[in-house]
Design brief:
The chain is mainly α. It has 11 helices and no strands. The protein is elongated.
Length: 180
Amino acid sequence: RRKSRGRSGGSRVDALMLAGKREEAVKIAHRELKTHAASWLRQTRNATYQVREWLRIIQRHSLQPELIAAMTPAEGATVDARVQFAAALDMLGEARPAAEAYAAVLALRPADSDLRKALLNAAAAWDPQRAMDYCREWAPRDVLHLRNLPQLMAGQQSHEGRLALMQVLAAALEKADATA
């Protein structure tokens, strides 16, 4: 495996695209997407910034369709491969398919709070009402145990998405109080 000479993956993709080497650029971008997707659910602010910078390059060269095709799990794929696919969709800005993919994987891993948080975030970006619907289906403790709720709300790009998450939290608190 060759080391890049001080270039980040995104700049290597950019350089290859500028040199007309799309296929090679897609291969590198796919490897990077897999790496980013593997840690996406436990992202930090710094990691999110790095992904955004990388994503600008991917979008500039319209590589999203090829990357989605490369990440699509095969029939009978592992749950981890499905999680990576959902995360890849999420990172690439495909909120509705990401939410649907997260929901399918959450059905296989119902106790995974990182998946639940990612589903809620993607659903709020796609359809804030759907995010609220998902939370109504969950036990109040599952909503209240979501880690980093303030970060989740801050990550929403629209006021509608933030409001939906606040309403979800309020509904979960009311439901928890009613059962206590």
